[in-house]
């Protein structure tokens, strides 16, 4: 029995999101159900000092394609 690796599992989940989201948007042009999803995150916040300007913000889009991508990559993780 193989030892479960949280780091490897996390990489597979991130890869599923990275590959599944654009595929969901692309396939969503033909089948709109694949592009349905949620957008959430923090709005941008700017700190303007005299010598440097810092901007922070996070936005995440999860659609049906990204969920399918994560499921496929987790299944692939369990098989390897």
Automatic annotation (TrEMBL):
It holds the Pfam family DUF4321. Keywords: Membrane, Transmembrane, Transmembrane helix. The chain crosses the membrane at residues 9-31, 51-79. This is DUF4321 domain-containing protein.
């Amino acid at each position: 029995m193989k030892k479960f690796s949280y780091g490897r599992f996390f990489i597979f989940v991130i890869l599923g999101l990275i590959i599944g989201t654009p595929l969901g948007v692309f396939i969503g042009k033909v089948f709109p159900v694949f592009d349905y999803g949620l957008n959430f995150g923090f709005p941008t916040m700017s700190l303007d000092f005299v010598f440097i300007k810092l901007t922070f913000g996070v936005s995440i889009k999860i659609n049906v394609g990204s969920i399918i991508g994560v499921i496929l990559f987790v299944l692939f993780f369990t098989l390897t």
